[in-house]
Amino acid sequence: MQILFFLIIIWIFIYTFGFAVTLWKEKQKFGALAIMSLCLVLLVLPFFSNYK
Known about the structure:
With 52 residues, the chain is mainly α. It has helices at residues 2-25, 29-50. Helix content is 88%, strand content 0%.
């Protein structure tokens, strides 16, 4: 079950990071940085919630 959980998190991260790259290419750097920080939180937060 945990493997499925982490695969879903990785899939969401890749999709969201791709959106950030698209924003960066469109010269919307502030929005891209905000989305990249959201991606970073998306990767880090599950480790703190699962492994207390």
